[in-house]
Amino acid sequence: MGLLSRQLWCLASVLLVPLLTLASPAPLKLAGIGPAWAVLWLLPWALVDGPVSGLLAGVAAGLLVDGLQPGLVSQWPALMLLGLWWGRLGRGGPPLERSFSLGLLAMLGCLLLDLSLMLQWLLASVLGRGEGRLGGEGIDTALLAQPGWHLQDLGQAGLQVLLARMLVTGLLAPVLCSLQMVLWRQVVGGAWRR
Q1: pLDDT per residue over 148-176, tens digit each?
Q2: Nearest to residue 30, comparing CAs of 178, 171, 176?
Q3: In the prediction, which pLDDT does 161 show?
Q4: Is 183 helix (H, G, I), strand (E, B) or coil?
Q5: Is residue 43 a contact partner of residue 169, using CB atoms and an 8 Å limit?
Q6: Going from the N-terminus, what domains does the chain have, and what CATH number goes with each?
């Protein structure tokens, strides 16, 4: 386990993810879409603390965000894999500190997270179609058959949300992730030890 997870206040910082998701600050939105806060928290954590800690932090952040929106889809599988990948990147070579690198990794993470959610919705709709509801609960598929709702319209809305969320996450990542990486490296380096 990494050094960050041994500090109680560092572990408590994961609570910022659901709080920021609920608060949804309006100045940090693009077309009404906010950033992927779990990605912005997990990226620096995994880069500094390694793959095992990144994997566990991804599960924790995903479960906290999933608790806000009960339903069929879950963020923790994608966040778990992202934490593992980013942890390996952080351990594998020179430190990733450049703004462009952090922004690109955050955008890729947001893309993979949203594609994972879309794939889960697709599977739920295919498996739950005979029941009239997606997965037996949630959205009534009969409502989607109403005039004005077409699959193409829903696909374009999903693409707009995906692109807006990727862009906002990628623009915030250099600033927020850089600050977090400085803080986490100080903790790992011993500046905040008991």
Answers
A1: 545 555 566 677 888 888 999 999 989 98
A2: 171
A3: 80
A4: helix
A5: no
A6: 4-189 (1.10.1760)
